[in-house]
Amino acid sequence: MRVSSSPACVFLFGRVTVLCACFALIGACGGGAGGSTLVNAPALQAKVEKLQITTLGQTGFLTPDLDGYFADSQITSATQFSFGPSVQSGISYAYVMGHDNVSFRAFSGIIPGSSVVDQPNHGTINYTTRYLLDAIVGIEVVGNVLRSYGSIGSDNDIVLTADFDAGTLTGQSLNDQFAVNGQLAPSGNGLTGTVSWLGIEGDLTGLVGSDQVIGAFHGSSPDTVYVGGFQGNAD
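Request: output the structure for the sequence above.
Response:
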């Protein structure tokens, strides 16, 4: 079970009422290691003045600084409730999730200066990888009130296979919740493509080398936003 580093699901949006309740999804509110677990499940209600919400959520790629912070995210320390893994631990991607008093926001990116060893010209390489992901689920607007059932954290092992002849990076997590469908850049070590979490498609960016793979991703649906990354070494 993974719990966010800062309180998730405590959404006091200034002038917006946000309701959080337990959301029964993939064993949430129980969940074991390597699955998805609802964070801070107790229902909360903030009785504050209402503000017309025009956006349910925004996700995207931004460039973090060397410490993994996103200066352009419009998410402040006061409105942030999820933050990616520690850069000091050797992780080369970062992500942040929070709000800007108008909508939920989630961004990810590769740490500047991250690098991999050049790819081979032919053949395949398997990478033993682990993904980390945070999501806001059950988003809806009722009248002028923005509601969300809560925040879910998901992490699991995923074996990714780079096919350098086909120019692809593919794989599916052991819990069958997360999948990668990436394309290798024609030159260099770049990675683009898509991911899918619980059937919700997202965008992918990253690096693929002969030594390791690094990825950052984000995705959304009308009632969900998610963001995260993965990293692993060649077998």
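Residues 19-234 form a domain with the Porin fold (CATH 2.40.160).
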